[in-house]
Amino acid sequence: MKTEELLIQVDDNDKEIGLIEKMEAHYKGILHRAVSVFVINSNGEWILQQRAFSKYHSAGLWTNTCCTHPMQGESNYDAARRRLMEEMGLEVSEITKIFDFIYKEQLAEKLFEHELDHVFVAYTDALPIINKNEVNNWKIIDYNTLMHQIDKYPEQFTVWFKLIVKQVETYINL
User: Fold this and answer.
1) Would you state the pLDDT for residue 109?
2) Is residue 2's pLDDT more than 60?
3) Quick one: which of 113, 134, 121 has its CA closest to 32?
4) Which residues contact 147 (CB under 8 A, 6 or more apart)?
5) What crossing angle do the helices spanning 159-171 and 143-152 adopt, rounded to 10°?
6) Would 135 be classed as within a structural domain?
7) Of 147, 148, 151, 149, the residue nearest 165 (C-alpha)
8) Any domain includes 82
9) Angle (CA) 62 114 166, round 5°
10) Where are the beta strands (DSSP E) in 24-170?
11) Which of 43, 79, 89, 173 is placed for a possible disulfide with 129 were both Cys, Cβ 3.0 to 4.6 Å?
């Protein structure tokens, strides 16, 4: 029997309110804590993932290197490192938080993403070894090509990725 996944419900200041079951949070649009990680190589190219087609939302869409919901008692930093290894098989020497943002967007299947998202960036030239249960595919892409693809095919990218991709670019230092 699969145990339910509990998310950390927060207020607008990231203060923990309690725990909420994952699907309930997404059906009701309850604000909860999340982490997004962007990995950049030494050429300034971005490592993206295509979400597995079995995902309950945003299946098959392209997005940042990985995302997760921190577990109760887990730091955002530790959650970012954990999920980078779980989804992409990447271990990085350094990972840096660059900003937070709150968004609420309706997805397909009557679901909502309402997250206080802690955004991290890491640098590596290692290549992913993907977990096929989580990730369908991956690619390395330069920023200008990425922006052209988002402009031409916005439906191929996750909503949160499109909301923050330009802001992430302003933090990247090579």
Assistant:
1) 73
2) no
3) 113
4) 165, 166
5) 150
6) yes
7) 147
8) yes
9) 45
10) 32-40, 46-51, 62-63, 66-68, 95-106, 112-123, 135-141
11) 89
pLDDT digits (tens, 9 = 90+) for 62-74: 999 999 999 999 9
The domain that contains 148 carries what CATH number? 3.90.79.10
What's the CA gap between 22 and 156, in Å, rounded?
24
Q: Which of 66, 67, 87, 113 is catalytic?
A: 67
**In the annotation, is 115 catalytic?**
yes
How many domains in the chain? 1
Residue 174 belongs to a domain: no
Mean pLDDT (whole number) for 30-59: 96
pLDDT at position 1, please? 40
Report the half-sphere exposure of 170 (CA within 13 A, side-chain side).
6
Nearest CA-CA partner of 35 in 113, 91, 114, 115: 115
Identify the active-site residue in 87, 113, 115, 134: 115
**CA separation for the pair 153, 172 (Å, rounded):** 24
Domain limits for position 25: 6-169
- Whether residue 1 is contained in a domain is answered as no
